[in-house]
């Protein structure tokens, strides 16, 4: 499990494969399940759905995405987990800070069959933020290695 998996080179290719295979299916499944777990006849169902998405799904999905992306880059399990420890908490905090309102609007106003599409549009802009954080972490690592 500690062997690297050099599947693809290039961040764009890895992110593209990850989003193509899992980026739409997992959120789609989640939103369908969320509609069944918290039906519209439950009091405050919209707020409960938002809280479940923000406090449970978003952090777990980010952790999984960051780990799989690191493995696709050819990092070992230990390196991928180290990367996860380094960038996960700031990304989730920023996600809660900046994406709670768009996700609230998505859950409250968008029909359930289109939520994963709108979520993907929101994620497109979020990926830009994650890529920037990733570059900052890599630059910081390169700076520490030179000293």
TrEMBL record:
Pfam family for this entry, one: Mpv17_PMP22
Superkingdom of origin organism: Eukaryota
Key word Phosphoprotein present: no
Locations listed in the record: Membrane
InterPro entries xrefs: Mpv17_PMP22
Positions of transmembrane segments: 20-38, 50-70, 103-130
Membrane topology: Multi-pass membrane protein
Lipid biosynthesis in keyword set: no
PANTHER family: PEROXISOMAL MEMBRANE PROTEIN 2 (PTHR11266:SF80), PEROXISOMAL MEMBRANE PROTEIN 2, PXMP2 MPV17 (PTHR11266)
Similarity-based family: Belongs to the peroxisomal membrane protein PXMP2/4 family.
Protein name: Peroxisomal membrane protein 2
Native species: Timema podura (Walking stick)
Lineage, top ranks: Eukaryota, Metazoa, Ecdysozoa, Arthropoda, Hexapoda
């Amino acid at each position: 499990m500690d062997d690297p998996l050099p599947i693809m080179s290039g961040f764009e290719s890895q992110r593209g494969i990850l989003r193509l295979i899992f980026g739409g299916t997992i959120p789609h499944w989640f939103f369908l399940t969320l509609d069944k777990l918290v039906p519209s006849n439950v009091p405050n169902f919209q707020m409960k759905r938002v809280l479940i998405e923000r406090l449970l799904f978003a952090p777990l999905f980010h952790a999984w995405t960051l780990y799989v992306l690191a493995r696709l880059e050819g990092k070992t399990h230990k390196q991928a987990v180290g990367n996860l420890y380094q960038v996960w908490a700031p990304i989730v905090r920023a996600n809660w800070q900046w994406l709670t309102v768009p996700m609230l609007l998505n859950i409250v106003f968008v029909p359930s069959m289109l939520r994963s599409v709108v979520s993907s549009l929101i994620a497109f802009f979020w990926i830009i933020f994650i890529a920037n954080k990733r570059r900052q972490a890599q630059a910081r690592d390169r700076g520490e290695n030179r000293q």
